[in-house]
Predict the structure.
Amino acid sequence: MAKAAAPAAAIHRGAWRNRWTFVLATAGSAIGLGNIWKFPYMTGMNGGSAFVLVYLLCIALVGIPLMMCEIMLGRRAQRNPVDGMAYLAHEAGQSRQWRWVGISGVLAGILILGFYSVIAGWVLDYMVRAASGAFQGMDGASAKLQFEIFLTKPLNLILWHTLFLGVTLAVASRGLNAGLEKANLIMMPALFAIVLLMVGYSMAVGNFTASARFMFSPNFSLITPTAVLSALGHAFFTLSIGMGAVMAYGSYLGRHISIARTTLYIALADTAIGLLAGLAIFSLVFANGLTPTAGPGLIFQTLPIAFGAMPGGDFMGMLFFILVAFAAWTSALSLVEPAIAWITENSSITRKEATGLIGLIDWLLGVAVALSFNLWADFKPFAGLNLFSLLDKLTTHVLLPLGGLAMAIFAGWVMKTAHVADELGLKPRFYPLWRFAIRYISPLAIILIFAYPLT
């Protein structure tokens, strides 16, 4: 293959003010609907404690090494993911085709936000419903009917999608420090505070003992191949690995900051939010005699029943959906950053104009996704999947694993060892462990995700 032409010098770029702003922003990227919507229902469907135990092991063995890898690539390149991979390939004397890893990540971010903002719009609607007392006296049949009716109203879905996307773009257009950094400095502490308040509430009015037993009493007989592969897949996706967002954030990171230490903080924050949210949710579920195996409808069909039957449920229900909305916004900001950085660093287009362009694409995509639940429900362009399911499968089961696999191979086998070791700055006894994980364990894990797309 042809070697990469020498890339242009890196342009002047912004930088995170300190380690903690990077930690909060990257943790915000990782903490999203996956932690508060997907992790609890996957735990419920996969045996509770068995899933949690395997998930924690997967975070340690796969998630943390991969996140270190992606941050390292971003900081080494000091460029957006597309130009960054081209630069790193040139530095390693390799083909410029590695830039397609960055292109894939940029595309994945745009496609994910197209349907992510629609689901986040559901959260905003349910936040208003909770505040208005709509959950009072609700039973299973009425909760299910309420959700089904909601999905049949395209204008409502489009309205909430537009509102969520509009706020996301307004923040992103302000830039790194005035936009992304400031928003995460506000929303992330608020998110942690609300999670702790929810846990306290669930301890007071829920069945916290049953919840803790369900999540943390190991039952090794429940560790099935399905549970293991589901935990592996979720550990990979929950940290926002493989789509260039972490690489883009890493490109703004100062060289004096430890990648290993900050990655550990991010993974701990991401995991803690998921576990605390699970404890709070299952406490309310068990206190009301509901089933933890409700699946994706857990927070939209099961939790409204619990909030409607509990003291202060209207307020706490509203607070819970505010929590989910904050988590969704911090993740959405990271989805657009790779594309915005790529456009602004390769053209005369301003950041606001680039944000508007990406926003228009995602708004149109989101409208189509919203219609796939009602007016276009019969339109199934591939393998019997509607547009929402198709985009979900394409990104989470193809683009993200491909991106993660390519980054692991590039860092483990293509980059010069001296460059990787210098950038990571690990102690001699730790670097071989990371290198073994990124060369063998992570690629094998991702190949298993490809082979068994269960999550």
Q: What stands out?
A: Residues 40 and 275 are 8 Å apart (CA to CA). The chain has 18 helices and no strands. Residues 29-451 form a domain with the Amino acid/polyamine transporter I fold (CATH 1.20.1740).
